[in-house]
């Protein structure tokens, strides 16, 4: 179903994010027939280009980031015609009048701030000064949304001077992933899971986001942030919220976000012994983290694993274990809900220990898998094996599932539709920082040194111990 006609202005329209994600995503939606003929996309950035030059940039980006078999010349030409360019320095006065002239009446107006957060204020202010943004306009802002509670608050206040909360779309692309939304469908659309979704039946939950890449190329930026700020405060926290939250009364933006906020507020402070930080060493022909960061004394973590307790009736006593890191064994994002043992085994000790585990895979191969225990086939008596009930979407739903929109595509269309459900609300972001800040401050105060780990592993040995000492273990990263 096509969305309503819109004018979308991308500040930073020539940048890396615009070229890799936003423009290819918009093209894919055009190709899918979701973008109306009247839609226009205006890139605004500092460099001097005319429309033709920008269209070449956009075409090259789409050709680079969308495989040949997934695009076609005719639709690409049509899409490119919808693009134009205005040179604007966000901190200056030029370019705003031409931008204003390009905006059409009666269209949805959306402004994508794909620029450094320091420019959010200047852009917001000028959009109003020049009468370009109004009460129905929407703005999209990227991560990082602050680097601590104070800076996030300040950003929220800056945006609030010019826009109402209902106009602000804070992107966390993890929320745009198909499986993440499916998580809500599975939890709240079936009777099967919800009765078991609590401390009585769930032993613990694991959330893993593992990358094989290092910080090469963005080492200087990353070194000021680290895994806690770059991944945990936003992406992993959002996943935790969706697993832990109470059923909202309806699938509506504020109902969902209210429930997520309650989860964040129920997180217990994390004690130092419940966290392991790591930093990758050189290996496999690749430099170490410190070399990548060009900071021989860096104390920034490229890996973090932790145990989190959610203090509420549903989860008391059922810990959430989170880990994320770079240069690990495999690229994978996975949530595992590990259920408790059956209360009594009628098959005796030799049948071994078997547990149901629901795994939700975000990448690769988005899907879900439920491990169930069955009898091993054959005449050997009552031997038990665990087999997967596999719900890989590509298998279950056919080829259509392979063509699910990328997170960015979906989220941008949600902006045009005016649906904020999958975007973070200001108070959510602040609550997440309020929980994260003391952890980072404690590290900084005692110059905490991350544990070194070899590339291609599952992170520092201590991260394994975090689970082992409680009789649990991490799922293998693969
Ligand atoms: P980039 O440096 O590649 O591009 C920045 C863009 O902003 C360019 O188009 C540049 O012309 C424009 N710009 C810079 N200063 C300007 C000014 N004064 N006035 C007008 N335009 C100006 O950056 P990027 O990687 O595309 O990132 C953009 C934003 O998105 C950042 O906030 C970044 O943190 C965030 N982000 C990027 C990625 C990514 O994968 N690249 C991922 C998540 C979030």
UniProtKB/TrEMBL annotation:
It comes from the Bacteria. Residues 445-478 are annotated as: Disordered. The keyword Oxidoreductase applies. Residues 184-475 form the Glucose-6-phosphate dehydrogenase C-terminal domain. Keywords: Carbohydrate metabolism, Glucose metabolism, NADP, Oxidoreductase. InterPro entries: G6P_DH, G6P_DH_AS, G6P_DH_C, G6P_DH_NAD-bd, NAD(P)-bd_dom_sf. Pathway: Carbohydrate degradation; pentose phosphate pathway; D-ribulose 5-phosphate from D-glucose 6-phosphate (oxidative stage): step 1/3. It catalyses: D-glucose 6-phosphate + NADP(+) = 6-phospho-D-glucono-1,5-lactone + NADPH + H(+). It is an enzyme of class 1 (oxidoreductase). The active site is at 235 (proton acceptor). It holds the Pfam family G6PD_N. One of its GO terms (cellular component) is cytosol. PROSITE patterns: G6P_DEHYDROGENASE. The keyword NADP applies. Residues 467-478 have a biased composition (Basic and acidic residues). One of its GO terms (biological process) is pentose-phosphate shunt, oxidative branch. GO terms for molecular function: glucose-6-phosphate dehydrogenase activity; NADP binding. Its EC number is 1.1.1.49. Residues 9-182 form the Glucose-6-phosphate dehydrogenase NAD-binding domain. Substrate binds at residues 173, 177, 211, 230, 326. NADP(+) binds at residues 12-19, 46, 143. Belongs to the glucose-6-phosphate dehydrogenase family. Catalyzes the oxidation of glucose 6-phosphate to 6-phosphogluconolactone. HAMAP family: G6PD. This is Glucose-6-phosphate 1-dehydrogenase. It comes from Mesobaculum littorinae.
């Amino acid at each position: 179903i096509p969305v309503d006609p819109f004018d979308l202005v991308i500040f930073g329209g020539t940048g890396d994010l615009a070229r890799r994600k936003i423009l290819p995503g918009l093209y894919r939606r055009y190709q899918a027939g979701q973008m109306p003929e009247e839609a226009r996309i205006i890139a605004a950035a500092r460099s001097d280009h005319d429309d033709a030059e920008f269209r070449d940039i956009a075409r090259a980006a789409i050709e680079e980031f969308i495989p040949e078999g997934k695009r076609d010349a005719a639709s690409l030409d049509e899409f490119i015609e919808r693009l134009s360019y205005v040179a604007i320095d966000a901190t200056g006065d030029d370019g705003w009048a031409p931008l204003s002239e390009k905006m059409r009446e009666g269209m949805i107006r959306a402004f994508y701030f794909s620029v450094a957060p320091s420019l959010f204020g200047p852009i917001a202010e000028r959009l109003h000064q020049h009468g370009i943004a109004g009460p129905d306009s929407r703005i999209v802002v990227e991560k990082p949304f602050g680097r601590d509670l104070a800076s996030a608050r300040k950003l929220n206040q800056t945006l609030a001077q010019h826009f109402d909360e209902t106009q602000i779309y804070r992107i966390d692309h993890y929320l745009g992933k198909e499986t993440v939304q499916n998580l809500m469908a599975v939890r709240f659309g079936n009777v099967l899971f919800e009765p078991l979704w609590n401390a009585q039946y769930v032993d613990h939950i694991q959330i893993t986001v593992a990358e094989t890449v290092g910080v090469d190329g963005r080492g200087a930026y990353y070194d000021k942030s680290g895994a806690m700020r770059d991944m945990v405060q936003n992406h992993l926290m959002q996943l935790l919220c969706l697993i832990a939250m109470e059923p909202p009364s309806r699938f509506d933006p504020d109902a969902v976000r209210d429930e997520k906020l309650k989860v964040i507020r129920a997180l217990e402070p994390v004690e130092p012994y419940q966290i392991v930080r790591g930093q990758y060493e050189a290996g496999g022909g690749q430099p170490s983290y410190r070399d990548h960061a060009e900071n021989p004394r860096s104390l920034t973590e490229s890996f973090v694993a932790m145990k989190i307790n959610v203090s509420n009736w549903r989860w008391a006593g059922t810990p959430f274990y989170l880990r994320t890191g770079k240069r690990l064994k495999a690229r994978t994002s996975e949530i595992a809900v590990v259920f408790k043992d059956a209360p009594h085994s009628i098959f005796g000790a030799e049948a071994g220990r078997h547990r149901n585990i629901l795994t939700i895979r975000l990448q690769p191969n988005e899907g879900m898998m439920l491990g169930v225990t069955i009898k091993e086939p054959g005449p050997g008596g009552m031997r038990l094996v665990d087999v997967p009930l596999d719900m890989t979407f590509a298998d279950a739903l056919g080829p259509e599932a392979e063509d699910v929109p990328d997170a960015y595509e979906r989220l941008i269309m949600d902006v045009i539709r005016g649906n904020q459900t999958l975007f973070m609300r200001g108070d959510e972001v602040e609550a997440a920082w309020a929980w994260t800040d003391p952890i980072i401050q404690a590290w900084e105060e005692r110059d905490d040194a991350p544990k070194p780990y070899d590339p291609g592993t599952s992170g520092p040995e201590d991260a394994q111990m975090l689970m082992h000492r409680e009789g649990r273990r991490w799922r293998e990263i693969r």
